[in-house]
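Need tokens for this chain, all 143 residues.
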Amino acid sequence: MTGPIWLQWFYVLFWIALISLMAIGGYFMFRKFLKALPKADGKSILDWQEYYIKETLHLWTDEHKALLNDLVSPVPELFRDVAKQTIAGKIGELVVKEEAKQLSQDHIIRGYILATPKRDHKFLIKKLKERNIDISPYQELLK
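Here are the structure tokens for all 143 residues:
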């Protein structure tokens, strides 16, 4: 005797859900693993991110932090800290490579555009319009 049919379907659906959730979790863990692998220069993407953040940390004012927090507010809370760190790393990279003495709103917006996928740019455009910030200088990056 194999049991009631509803129980058999429950088992099938349970295993499908379990395998699906494990595959999704594995995908995100594998992405993080790839970012932690050292590149040809001996540093990983995460190492460079941390380096750029440390190099520019003294340039961040409360106003800059508030702007970044506002820009990442559409990101789900679970992923928001990771998104902020990634974006801050890209902003730091821009500042270091340009040898800028101050962090500007322009750096923050360009860093956000470069660090995020194109599908997220619509949220950035909406936030910039809410803050009455002209997006025309960034049209080339947004394409």
